[in-house]
Each structure stands twice: as structure tokens, then as C-alpha cells.
From TrEMBL:
InterPro entries (UniProt xref): Cro/C1-type_HTH, Lambda_DNA-bd_dom_sf, TPR-like_helical_dom_sf, TransReg_Diox_bact_type
PANTHER family: HTH-TYPE TRANSCRIPTIONAL REGULATOR, METHYLPHOSPHONATE SYNTHASE
Protein name: Helix-turn-helix transcriptional regulator
DNA-binding found in the keyword field: yes
GO cellular component: cytosol
PROSITE patterns named in the record: HTH_CROC1
Keyword annotations from UniProtKB, A to Z: DNA-binding
GO MF: DNA binding; DNA-binding transcription factor activity
Pfam family, one: HTH_3
Ranges of residues in domain HTH cro/C1-type: 8-61
Keyword DNA-binding set for record: yes
Organism: Peribacillus psychrosaccharolyticus
């Protein structure tokens, strides 16, 4: 007798049902008897019917675990996954632990309940973070599962994950294609998508359209998002939107808009008292002072104030960007040796993937090249300017790419 048949028979007897009562009109009494005695395997349709008749989940018939079991396991794993910060040494240990506790479940998981689908998703995510390889077929089964049970917020999170992979590879068009597919897929059920997930979707679409320099659609999704935030009095993601708008305005040397968005960002920073937001706001102010106000002396004092007096919890991981601003300010003050000294060990951080952010960073190599040229180190100047020029060759034109191009002409020609 198979384990499946044993479980069906056990639950039937616990519920005081006869074979005929359980069979009902959906399956023959003889076939049910064969299934219970391990002499026949039910189709998935029949299995779902039997589970419905018994008032249990299909998973409890297949692997003997109840939905309560999965809820307990999932709650523990969700709690552990929150301990992953992607920057700390113990992250790999937590990931290995989650994989160990979910791997043995995979063969038995169905896609009928939220708990099982989420456990499958977590396993696939942890496996990707460890190996950088994604089981694409299984991941799309997870997505289809969420759609089948109408959990569209998690379906969108799956699309975000796929989009992030393409974005990190700087394949902006593929990332945009994925997020447009996500929008179209959930659109008929938009009323089932919570407002935070709606804002997340609009934010990512705004970022991606900005990455390919599509101003019309960038503005469209921005306004969609701001309308939700305003109408529902939701502050979620507002700092991200204003930061994006500010950097875009600065990249076009639009002083009026830059001042407006910086003011909004600083108000949100004061309101939130969030260390990460404070770090971004501090950087944005320094970038504004450097490029719009061109008050280079203030750049040094603002940098010093942030890192010596008000350094936030997240100040360290953005230190490279602050140093880029410092080097640029030194160059504009014609302190070439200081500019080289502060930028000589800079490498492009892994967290930078947007073409505007990358253009800002590549500019520091052009700055350093100009400094080397001024100090008559032509070989180093050519090395750095060629690296900067090649780095931005596929990016939309902005003030940073213009600076690199002008430096290239000065050094190479």
C-alpha cells in the first residue's frame, strides 16, 4: 500500500466517511479503493477532488504535512531571512542554513498553497545568491503559482527579482521588458495589488525609463506614483523618487528643479530619521553643491561633517561616491595632487548599476586623467581617460558624459 493511499484511507476513516461517500460523483468507488490500496495512482484532478472531499490540502495527502506544518516552517525561515543584510560575513552561513532546511522539502512541495509556493521561492532565491544560477523553469512555476492563487504582490516581487538580475548586468532594455510584462500581467487584477507594491512597480519603471533616456515614460510613471502617494498620504518611496529626480536635474544642470528636489529630499530626511535615507540625502546635497552651486570649499566641509560628526550606519558603503565628489572639488580648485591622492584607489562599487550613477563615477577617472595631464604624467592620463570614455560609450548624454568627452579631446588630441 502506498503512503498516499495510506494517508487517504486514514483521513477518510478519521472523518467517518465510507468509500462511497468519499468517492461521491467525482470518482468511482472502485478506483478510490484501488488508490487507497496502492494499486492505482490518482490523476492530479482526482487528487484535488479527494483532498476537497476530505477538507485537506493536497500537500497533506502527498507528503503528510499539514498547512500548519508549512506555516511553522515558513515563519521560522522568513524570520531568519531577515537577518541577511548582503554585506555581513554571517550572511553566507544564514543562506546555507535556509537551504539545508528547505532542500529536503522541494520534491514534496506542490503549488497549491501560499506557504508551499513561498518556500519554493525562498529556496530558489537562496540557491541563486549562493551559486548565481537561477532555475528559470522552477522560478516561473513559482510565479504561475502566485498568479493562480491571486497573490499578485508576490508575483510582482518575483518580477522585481528577475529585473534586478538584468539591471545588475546593465541590460536595461531586458529589465524594462520584464517589468512591462509584470505590469500587463497584474493590470486586470490591479485592485488586488496593494499600494506599496504599486509604488514599487512605478518606481522601478521610472528608473528603467530614465536609464534608457525615455523622458516621456519616465514622467508618466513618476506622476502615476506621486498621485498614489499624494492621494493616499503614503510617504513610502518618496525619497527614492525625489533622489532620482534630483540627480536627473543636476545631470542637466537645471538649478531650479535641483533646488526644489533637494529641499523635498532634506524635508523627508528630517521627517524619517532613517540612517540610510540620511546618507543618500547627505550625498545628494554634496553633489548639488559641487555641480550646481560650484562651492567647492563647502564640499570639503560637508564631507568632513558627515564622516566625522554625523556618519550614518550606511555611510561606509557609499564612501566611494563621497570621495568622487571630494576629488572633483579638488580638481576644480586646481589641487591636482589632492584629487589624485583621494581617488587613486577608487573602484566602481558593485551597487552602482544605473547609467547616471555610473556616469558620475566614471567622471572621477576623467578628473584624475586631467590631473595627471596637469602634472605631466601623460601615460597615466591616457590610461584613465580611455577607461572613462569606454565606460560611458553606451550611456545617454548628460553633464558627466560631456565632461568625459571634453577631457578625452583635451588629453588625446
Amino acid at each position: 500500500m502506498s503512503e498516499l493511499g495510506i494517508r487517504i484511507k486514514k483521513i477518510r476513516k478519521e472523518k467517518n466517511l465510507t468509500l462511497q461517500q468519499l468517492a461521491g460523483n467525482g470518482i468511482s468507488k472502485g478506483m478510490l479503493s484501488l488508490i487507497e490500496n496502492g494499486k492505482a495512482q490518482p490523476s492530479m484532478e482526482s487528487l484535488h477532488y479527494i483532498a476537497e472531499q476530505l477538507g485537506v490540502e493536497v500537500s497533506s495527502l502527498i507528503n503528510g504535512r499539514s498547512i500548519e506544518d508549512y506555516r511553522t516552517i515558513l515563519a521560522e525561515i522568513e524570520a531568519d531571512s531577515k537577518e541577511i543584510h548582503w554585506t555581513e560575513e554571517n550572511d553566507e552561513e544564514v543562506i546555507r542554513s535556509i537551504l539545508a532546511r528547505t532542500e529536503h522539502l522541494q520534491a514534496k512541495l506542490t503549488f497549491d498553497t501560499y506557504e508551499e509556493i513561498r518556500l519554493k521561492e525562498i529556496y530558489l532565491l537562496m540557491n541563486y545568491y549562493q551559486s548565481k544560477k537561477l532555475d528559470d523553469t522552477s522560478f516561473h512555476e513559482v510565479m504561475d503559482g502566485y498568479e493562480r492563487i491571486h497573490v499578485y504582490n508576490r508575483l510582482l516581487r518575483c518580477y522585481h527579482f528577475l529585473g534586478e538580475i538584468s539591471f545588475s548586468q546593465q541590460d536595461y532594455h531586458k529589465a524594462l521588458q520584464l517589468m512591462k510584462e509584470a505590469e500587463q500581467r497584474v493590470q486586470p487584477h490591479w485592485y488586488l495589488v496593494n499600494q506599496l507594491s504599486q509604488l514599487d512597480l512605478y518606481y522601478v519603471l521610472t528608473v528603467l525609463y530614465a536609464a534608457i533616456n525615455d523622458q516621456k515614460n519616465t514622467e508618466h510613471y513618476l506622476q502615476q506614483a506621486l498621485a498614489i502617494a499624494k492621494n493616499e498620504k503614503i510617504f513610502y518611496r518618496l525619497d527614492d523618487f525625489y533622489r532620482l529626480l534630483l540627480i536627473q536635474a543636476i545631470s542637466k544642470l537645471d538649478k531650479e528643479k535641483s533646488m526644489f528636489y533637494l529641499h523635498k529630499l532634506k524635508l523627508l530626511d528630517e521627517f524619517s530619521e532613517d540612517p540610510l535615507m540620511h546618507t543618500y540625502a547627505a550625498y545628494c546635497e554634496i553633489h548639488y553643491v559641487n555641480n550646481i552651486e560650484q562651492d567647492y570649499e563647502s564640499v570639503h566641509s560637508l564631507n568632513q561633517a558627515f564622516f566625522e560628526e554625523d556618519e550614518a550606519e550606511f555611510g561606509g558603503f557609499m564612501r566611494e561616491l563621497f570621495m568622487c565628489e571630494e576629488a572633483y572639488a579638488y580638481y576644480m580648485q586646481e589641487d591636482f595632487e589632492s584629487a589624485i591622492a583621494i581617488s587613486k584607489d577608487l573602484t566602481i562599487p558593485l551597487y552602482l548599476n544605473h547609467p547616471i550613477d555610473l556616469s558620475i563615477f566614471y567622471r572621477v577617472f576623467a578628473v584624475r586623467a586631467l590631473c595627471y595631464q596637469s602634472l605631466n604624467n601623460i601615460e597615466a592620463a591616457k590610461r584613465d581617460i580611455l577607461y572613462a570614455k569606454d565606460g560611458v560609450k553606451e550611456y545617454p548624454q548628460n553633464v558627466y558624459t560631456d565632461f568625459i568627452q571634453d577631457a578625452y579631446v583635451k588629453i588625446i588630441n
